[in-house]
## 1
Amino acid sequence: VVEGALLKAGTPMDSLDGIAVTVGPGLVGSLLVGLYYAAGLAYSKGTPLIPINHLEGHILSIFLEKEAPEFPFVALTVSGGHTNIYHVENYGKYTAMGQTVDDAAGEAFDKVAKISGLGYPGGVAIEEISMEGDHDKIRFPRAYLKKDSLDFSFSGLKTAVSLYMKKWKERNSHEEEFRHISLADIAASFQESVVDVLVHKTIMAARKTGVASMVVAGGVACNGRLRTRMSAEATKEGIRSFYPTPRYCTDNGAMIAAAGYHRLLKGLTGDLSLDVRSRYPIEEVNYSC
């Protein structure tokens, strides 16, 4: 993979100024594979090693695009493992405003897709079948938590869909409640519930901070319904919304390199004693610009 990337970029290994590597948050086993490989390269080539927070990579992925926001902005990072809102004041200056208290949005997509027999990845499967459904057919719960809370919760929604699916699968033609409900309707209604909450909380964060721009990043940011709804609501508020192209929404090396570039400029490198972290609050990576 590394050799292919260097070949495609037309960049020899010896010309690299630094090697950026994700050290957290995430699954320790996966993180260690990347760290050991990167550390080996850095040691053999005498190249600086730059530890990166995975979520900082998602936030800065928008700067891989030709059009990007000016600071400050609000960022929603939404994926299978994370659902967070940040106030981003500059490179290396992040404040957490909200996070999931249980399941991440992407995790909810995967679990609902599984119980629906739609396969994996769940986000793609649900979005595709939702195009054939009516998102107003079923009113699944929206967990907004406390009035001014920017935290998320999707476990209750997942349970509600699971219970509904069980009844729907046991339906018969004499049950009026389910007679005109399709699997596509269930998927679309579930997706709409998730999107409603994500849009509501992100717009609320933008209002609280008074920013002129927002970024939506992470794997779930590929979802077309989320982009459409978020863009429409942001426009109503006079806020510009930005989204990385799909290849930069899902986990990728380019976003880690982008974060590494700005840290290298500040001389923020690590050494071979680096370790990985399953939990890694983004405030711990802040630095002055």
## 2
Amino acid sequence: MAMKQHQPLDFLDGAPAMPKRKGLSFGSLAVLAAVALLAIVVALQLTERNRGRPLSGPAPDFELTLFDGREIALADFRGQVALVNFWASWCPPCRDEALELQALYSDYREAGFTIIGVNMLESSPQKALDFIEEFGISYPNGEDREQRVTNLYRVEGPPESFLIDRAGNVRQFYIGSVRYDTVSKAIEALLAEGR
């Protein structure tokens, strides 16, 4: 039996060659490796950033001289729900939250809630006092000129806030402007725990 010979397929001669499938190029692998490395570095920095920060458990006690000259300590507010708010007059998010914080204080003060404002990184006490007057802030505020309270809470920049229950434990931590709707729910829950 004779083998039949195949004729060349002339119509394929002008067709574009099919690209050969390869694995990832060196450049693609380098980009993927760089992205993975960046993700690891960011994760490690976030972990390190929060190391030692009181995100739960007993809130570090502190003393603070208020702008009116009175001395207070966080321990003075045991039995109340407290929000310790770190702020500065030059900080745009602090300005955004100022009226919301005052509204929270006004609405929940009689129920056993307070706010302690800790002014930080201010160039002059007068700027802080002007801020307090501008926004009609009536809750206790003091200047942390030597950054003792700021360092105790490992605050990196304003605004940061710590919500503390009646027993003196940190229950919530907020970076950036606080919003009335969000924080009021947490305050109500903590106030209800003490009943």
## 3
Amino acid sequence: MISLSCLKHLAAGVLAAAVIVASGCSSSAAEESGDLIDDSGSDGSTTGDGEGSSTSGESGGGSTTGAASSGTSGGDTGDTGSDSAGEEDDLLPGLEPGACAVDTPSALSLDLPDSNGTVSPVQSRMAILDGWGVFGALHIRPWEFLNYYPFEYPAAPVGELAVHAELYAQGGLQGSAFEVQVAVTGPHLEASERPPVDLTLVVDNSGSMKGVPLTVLKAACTALAKGLQVGDTVSLVTWESDAPVILASHAVTGPLDPKLVAAIESLEATGGSDLYGGLSAGYELASAAKKPDRVGRVVLMSDGGAAVDAKTLELIAGHASDPQAEGIDLIGVGVGTYGGYQPALMDSVAALGRGPTVFVGSVEEANKTLVEGFLGLTMVAAREVEVELVLPPGFRRVASPELRYDGDLVPPGGQPLPQNGALVLYERLDTCAPELVSDQSPVSIVVRYRDVESHEVVELVVDKTVGELLAGGSAQLQKGAAIVRYAEALRLWNDAGAELDVYAAVAQEALDRIDVAQKKLPNDASLAEIRAVLEALLKAMV
């Protein structure tokens, strides 16, 4: 459904394109050969000024997002649904195979079923590199891979959001296959400038936590302690039925506060299993500390070996941020080994808690996710971010069967934009009417979000042409394409329904896209990692 604002835009002569606005991509060279021209074109980022506009508006549409790092200055970038959740085939929203409208603009609203999760990229990597080879109950969710791996998009000016887009046309404009990637970024915030944080750690100390899970949990708590500074408070609460509170609203002296570190080291897996009691005590402490100029967060840590009931879910939802006020969001931190972690608990609380869900399986991962990512984990630059894409007539989304999600996940109303991060969307498109596409074809991206201070809905409309997007560069898009195909290859392997030769072909396609991306970003650590994981899996198959 096209929003009123989009219809007004179209009436003004804008046939628009769906998905993104920012740095563009080369329209020449066949993708299969990897012979892409140098596309170090100008930055395509746009904020509320210039070609875009920013207005108050009603929330609508949807968004497909991924979290990524954003830079501190402008310049060249360098270099997936509620509507169908109940349908039988459970495809991402908006996928209508065979649908083709040549008389009206193509509009896509993009949704995700969970909120900034990054569990499956970490667990699948562990499973392969540790020799498991299969993922069991793990759900491979391609959008989580875009959340997990960082992209280099410029930050927005203070008080604004920026929209960045890249477009790639296989075989040029006369072809029918296109790829597009959009990223939404907020202003950069230094740690020294952030508001004070009241952090409440609610930790699982049940019997299943003995051994590696407890060791990793302590490492995760210690990693969060490194991100605290003078002015912050911290509470530590267990799942014990009696006296669950170990530390109550303690004012830290700085990173690795001695009293907090000692409390963390004292944790034992004594058999406490009262999840509701622990969360109730944690939320009580967090609520008592809550003030308008402070950020309150509850961090739930567990190996997932607990069931969550309706009473607990109601407790979580009742404290999370709502449209009119900043609440106490819940951050889910899964801990333990690949084989021992059970995702059902964190899956249940992710959307309701309105915070990110991560997995930590090692000290190294704790430092990467919880220390380096502290600001993005605990703070948001905007809420309820939604992206509506309007494309020229004939465009439609193309998705492989691997791009599916689980129908029991609850879609949130838009996505939070993590502080110092980005929401990244990648889509494959085709057109049944390539003759209607030219360099002058207009493309519009409508981004709606709720301001974290005023709580008002803001609408940002960005207008570009196909030619402008194609001329802007595609390095980050090529990285996104490689990551998505890597995730699809893992998903296909995990489903175990494909013949080895079929899987090998899909894996080779992913490696080919990694090759293309590495030509543009030769020193990119994320691309090197996914190549190593995929090659290890292929080697194990021989």
